[in-house]
Amino acid sequence: TDNEIDLLRHFVLSVESNSRTKELRRNLIAAILAYGCNIGPKEMSDSLEGVSVWEIEGAFDRYLTEDNLKAATIEVINAISRMELVHVWGDGKRSSSDGVVFALPLRVLQSEQSTRLRERGIVFYPTLSDQHSILFQQIIPVRLREALYALDALLQHDTELDPRMNISDMHGATELIMAAGKMLGFELCPR
Fold first, then answer.
1. CB–CB of 124/100 below 8 Å?
2. Strand partners for 100
3. pLDDT tens, 19-42?
């Protein structure tokens, strides 16, 4: 896919774009896979011949910034939305959101005490398009309703898709948020 959409261009500095070496390309792909698949640089290095853990960690530290990852993710979502097959599932005008609560027994900066979990936790709140790609994702506090974050994905996804309707469970909708969405031209639909 990098050959088709030139995904790695989002990770290199403009000065380096003309002098991108095979090693840099290899290290970037290894770092993206290591962290994206949650296997880590050591295991990735062990599975590849001639790539050290330091090269993978160096590529991650230097090139895989939050802005670069966001730009690359948007590029992938846009490329997926242009494929003929995904239009069988939807036209990109609808999305759905649902939070997943994770217990975090350790003190992590974003974790909070959860009455539901009876321990510390966070909520991972992804929004999926009707074409089955993740439009937006965020970590939110367990003590707040998901509805407070329901409009974020519709307003901040930055992709070519234009979802106008978001379907969520009752945690993702309140009358106030639904009214605010309506004023912005979105329809929030609790299921």
1. yes
2. 124
3. 557 888 899 999 999 988 889 899
